[in-house]
Amino acid sequence: MRQCFILVFCGISLQILLFFYMQFFSLDWIEERTTGRKIQPENYTYRSLIQLVLDKNASDASTEITMLMNGEPFPSIVTTESNGRLGNQLSAYAALQYFQEVHGMYGVMGSWQINMLADVFGKENLKVTTFNVDVPPQFSLNWEMVASPSQSVWELNSNFLDNMEEYRHNKFINIGLYPHYLFLYKDILDQLRDHLVFKPHVTNLVNNGFEKIRSENKNEKEMMFVGVHCRLTDYGNHLKAVSGASLVDHHYFDRAFDIYRARYNNATTQVVFLVMSDDPQWIKENLGKYEDVRFGINFRKGMVTEMDMIAFDLCLLGSCNHSIITYGTFGTWGALFAGGDVIAPTGTNPGAKTEDDLIWEKAAMDGWLYLDVRDVNNIQEVTYTPPVPPTNSSTRIVQKDA
Q1: What's the whole-model pTM score?
Q2: What Rg value do the Cα atoms of the chain yield, rounded?
Q3: In whole numbers, what is the pLDDT of the chain averaged over residues?
Q4: What is the strand order of the sheet 130-134 is part of?
Q5: φ/ψ bin of 298: left (φ > 0), alpha (ψ from -120 to 50), beta (otherwise)
Q6: 37, 176, 350, 401 — which has fewest CB within 10 A?
Q7: CA 319 to CA 312: how far, in whole Å?
Q8: What does the pLDDT read at residue 391?
Q9: Residues near 375 by beta carbon (within 8 Å), at least 6 away in sequence
Q10: Is the distance from CB of 236 to CB of 246 less than 8 angstroms?
Q11: What residues form DSSP beta bridges with 54?
């Protein structure tokens, strides 16, 4: 009888402990409710029922996460189930790296996501890894979703953004299906370029293309390369379905070309436009009339394997001095890797903002100019001004232990 009483008592005690800890993993939650006092971030002490041991294998871009019952705090684990192509996975990686770099969390991705990135950049330099979590039998792992779709884009919840300090420890966080949070990870683009390094053989092929163009230069001027990404074919259906928008036509490129020529053509410099597209016939028919236009497909034919074509296209765009893009994450990342001036369209849906409009406007990137194409005979220039941050907000880089 006494043994039964002890077992029942222990069972009830364990259930009470699990009730308080299974979601919050923190004793501060109990303290707030028993004292009525809200713990301020600057005095915040993290106490956890479990500890996470992170065993990172850099060469394989993977992390083995083991949960131990010893009460030490752990950095919040943040992930996304982004299921798109390369541009989407780059945006997901960048968003996770932002939370890892700026807020001290630990970013992880699925193995298939990392493999897609590794096909282009290799695994050895990636800072976000795949993962496997070994959970004690007393717990089930629940990822807290902190984002939701709004209009045609995913947005982080205001409670998450406004209370970031409370999310830095002891949580498992999902930042949404399509985390195109350029307004955040624009602050770490230099770091992203440092470790998202194209494979050497692809870089060599791209450099050979540039040298071939330079060798054809008869006026000995310095060449200023502008990468042009023209997404067509199936993307028209996507634009219509998601944003009610239409594809741009040659008027957009004509105006963008003229802007760059006016900016950079002079006695010592010559602008050259390198055009990449999924519809080579269209770009040659509509843009081939210009002497300063070259087509990327001509530099990869017979030189680039099928496996490397996507990497070659992105590396070529990202190796240019400046950019002209249309829509979608692939062209956006080509421009982000290039890091110079960018021209992009707006007004592709005359009555509403598109997915790209919402992302670009919120980010308000320096050096980006937008061409309003609602009236192709009177294309207007548009710029976005960054919002004024709250006076109590700050961005900080969390120092990692060596």
Answers
A1: 0.81
A2: 25
A3: 85
A4: 51-57, 62-68, 130-134
A5: alpha
A6: 401
A7: 10
A8: 46
A9: none
A10: yes
A11: 65
**Number of alpha helices (DSSP H) and beta strands (DSSP E) in the chain:** 16, 16
Residue environment code for 351-378, b if the CB has 16+ CB neighbours within 10 A, otherwise e: eebbbbbbbbbbbebeebbbbbbeeeee
Whose structure tokens read 């199936």?
234
Strands 172-174 and 77-79: parallel
pLDDT band at 362 (very low <50, low <70, confident <90, very high): very high
DSSP for 100-118, written as a single string: HHHH--EEB--HHHHHHHH
**CA–CA distance, 370 with 397 (Å, rounded to integer):** 31
Write down the residue that tokens 């890894």 correspond to.
129
Listed as own residue / partner, the contacts of 280-288 with beta carbons closer than 8 Å and 24 or more positions apart are 282/230, 282/232, 283/230, 286/249, 286/250, 286/253, 287/228, 287/230, 287/250, 287/253
Alpha-carbon 257 to chain mean position: 27
Q: What one-letter code names the amino acid at 12?
A: I
Backbone angles phi and psi of 369, in degrees to 5 = -120, 140
Are 46 and 170 contacting, i.e. CB atoms less than 8 angstroms apart? yes
- What is the spatial distance between Cα 123 and Cα 119, in angstroms, rounded to a whole number? 8
Is the model's pLDDT at 3 over the cut of 70?
Answer: no
Two structure tokens written together for 250 = 């040659």
- Within 182-241, strands assigned E span 222-230
Type of residue found at 43: N
H or E segment at 164? helix 164-167
Nearest to 355 by CA among 219, 153, 187, 184: 153
Instruction: Kindly report, residue by residue over 30-87, the tens digit of the pLDDT.
Output: 345 444 444 444 433 444 556 667 787 877 788 877 766 566 788 999 999 998 999 9
pLDDT at 21: 44
Q: How far apart are CA 93 and CA 188, in angstroms?
A: 12
Pair of tokens at residue 14: 């364990």
> Nearest Cα to 256, choosing from 299, 214, 286, 296?
286
- Tell me 173's DSSP state: E
